[in-house]
């Protein structure tokens, strides 16, 4: 293994063998994970959940319950991620392009637009909720009605970058249903938002983030 690079929520693990250059494209989806083990170490999950094992002399990297696994020639590793918007944690992060893509969907809710990886890559339900709370935007607000879309995009990138640096981040609203809002003390609410059959929980403060 040469190393792994990320594109939003996609992982590209580069593997070289003799004169062959390959990339293993994986995506965790909702239940997947990678774990690294020393030789002879007991795996933390059942063997039948392993979808791929990459082994070196010192370690084994095991991908459990991965949503996507495909082997690509190195020259084609960009094919499965070409549709993605700017990566919030990538070296080529472009907030102007991210805002432009969001504005192409003025009637979408801001929460769904943020989660659409074609607009900006890497953000999930947690940081969508936290970003909207920080800017006092209700998650059901239409994109066209968000007062300051560039500020919201910037805040999302700042929160995610800070979390990546510290590996710890206190949540304001995400996962805190019925807990007091850190601003006003109102109980945090939650709604199921998203396309039918793909709804996910969206957390917000009913007072700090008034309904549109």
Strand coverage percent:
25-35%
The largest pleated sheet is described as: 4 strands, antiparallel
CATH class group of the largest domain: Mainly Alpha
What are the low-pLDDT stretches, counting only 5+ consecutive residues below 50?
none
Number of DSSP strand runs:
9
DSSP helix count?
4
Indicate the mean pLDDT.
92
CATH-defined fold name of the largest domain: Helicase, Ruva Protein, domain 3
User: What is the CATH architecture term of the largest domain?
Assistant: Orthogonal Bundle
User: What is the end-to-end distance?
Assistant: 50 Å
What spatial form do the alpha-carbon principal axes imply? Answer: globular
| Computed structural class | alpha+beta
How do the SSEs run, as a string of H and E? EEEEEEEHHHHEE
How much helicity do the residues have?
Answer: 10-25%
User: Spatial order of the strands in the main sheet?
Assistant: 1-2-3-7
| Total individual domains | 2
Query: Any idea what the radius of gyration is?
Result: 19 Å
